[in-house]
Amino acid sequence: MVVETIISGGTVVTATGETDASIAINDGKIVGIGTDETLPDATETIDASGLLVMPGAIDPHVHIDDMFSIDSYESATGAAAVGGTTSYIDFAWQAWDGEMGIWDEDGTLLEGVRRKQEKGENALVDYSLHGAIAREDPDVFDEIPDVINAGVTSFKMFTAYEFGLSNGFMNRAIQRIAEEDAVGVFHTEDPSICDSLTEQFKEEGKGDPEWYPKSRPDYAEAMAAEDAARMALEAGMKYYGIHTTCRKAADILEYFQDDGSMIRAETCTHYCTLDDSIFEEMGNLPMIAPPIRKPDDVEAMFEHLHNGCLSVVSTDHCAYRLDQKQVENWWDSAFGANALQVSLPVFYDEAVNRRGYTPSFVVQVMSTNPADTFGLSQKGTLETGTDADIVLMDPDETYVITADDNVSKAEFSIYEGRTVTGRVKKTLVRGEVVAEDGEVVGKPGYGKFIEREIPDWNTH
Ligand SMILES: [Zn+2]
């Protein structure tokens, strides 16, 4: 037998350890892991000597081509490919007629799924979707089985913004999602506290960006997380808290995890690597909701990743132009920042080089845990029979991050000028090289929509 590709001579990194081995790939799948002598011959050999061979990163939290992001599927997936992210989960929005929305009339969740799948026809890497429930219309409950059948097995709910849900409606949604054994995904910030402080700061003329994090305090995040996690626990629903930023919120989730229930959560690369001194440095550019917090909260993210309370690191990627950010008062600025292209190297550098974690830890929180949490059974690891979604990373190459290199349409980087050691050299999706040395080489349209299974959380 002759296989298509062998990745030869690298150090294979999985969530459980590292070994020097080669990987044989055929028809998009890993068909063998061993030495060059034990593996079949290949049409093409990729030399990985001196490189780490890791599963591609899986980013379960991104915003592409909707009201929160100027990226197209092509530009965002290009950034993902260059940065070593081989799959991501975007949001399929239920249309709502409102100020922040982009629709003239209400729509269904299933229409939201179809709309994003059309945009996804230009994807370079694989993607999936969370259904985002944006209106308090009980009709959505009847749609849930159909949405699950379409391969969308998680449902996002917000406590804040005009599409935020009241606890009452959210509680009903949680019960419905629990009946299907699906996953609830939560943005938690107490809206009345955030809105009230924002109004106060507006009246007091506190428009400098340093006031932004004070308008959305850590305790408001912890309060809403407590409510949502408690409702999930009552209903027996799988709870996934997105973008945990602070010690107070992580402590609450840890409290609910004590009884062995199904409470999981992520943090993002920026909450692990940046603190609120950045507002003085970069103005509104790093305005993300919830905000980048204090240095002690950065420490708390690593403590809680280490003890497993937080189990995933995502980007919350949103792409913006500079003029959407560079406005006089922070409350007129867009919220969010792009990171798909740099998340893996920035987090790798922070965790491994600056804090002494192993490359396996990075694989665990950026590949294996997101795949396990969201039912991506073919992805997130390097095992015979799984998709050959692979990143070759040079652990010794040092470079400086700059927005000049952005493949995303975003016009800035919150990591501008940051020196990192560890660079993505090649990214393969299902055995095909889609990015090489910082350049996209894959074809738009190669990326596929992944129908996700209902995940089994008892194995974790
Ligand atoms: Zn988000």
How does the overall form come out from the CA principal axes? globular
Q: What value does the Rg take, in angstroms?
A: 21 Å
Determine the number of helices (DSSP H or I, runs of at least 4 residues). Answer: 13
Distance between the termini: 37 Å
Structural class: alpha/beta
Sheet with the most strands, sense and barrel status: 9 strands, mixed
List the uncertain runs. Answer: none
Write the element-wise H/E pattern from the N-terminal end onward: EEEEEEHEHEHEHEHHHEHEHHHEHHEEEE
* CATH C-level label of the largest domain: Alpha Beta
CATH homology superfamily of the largest domain: Metal-dependent hydrolases
Could you tell me the CATH topology label of the largest domain.
TIM Barrel
List keywords for this structure.
460 residues, alpha/beta, Urease, subunit C, domain 1, TIM Barrel, nine-stranded mixed β-sheet, eight-stranded parallel β-sheet, 13 helices, 31% helix, 24% strand, globular, binds zinc ion, hydrolase activity, acting on carbon-nitrogen (but not peptide) bonds, in cyclic amides, Dihydropyrimidinase, hydrolase, pyrimidine biosynthesis
Tell me what you see in this structure:
By secondary structure, the chain is α/β, with parallel strands linked by helices. The chain folds into two domains: 2-54 and 386-396 and 421-440, Urease, subunit C, domain 1, CATH 2.30.40; 56-376, TIM Barrel (Alpha-Beta Barrel). Helix content is 31%, strand content 24%. The protein is built from 13 helices and 17 strands. The strands form two sheets. Strands 1, 2, 3, 4, 5, 14, 15, 16 and 17 form a nine-stranded mixed beta sheet that branches. Strands 6-7-8-9-10-11-12-13 form an eight-stranded parallel beta sheet. Helix 12 (343-354) crosses helix 13 (359-374). Belongs to the metallo-dependent hydrolases superfamily. Hydantoinase/dihydropyrimidinase family.
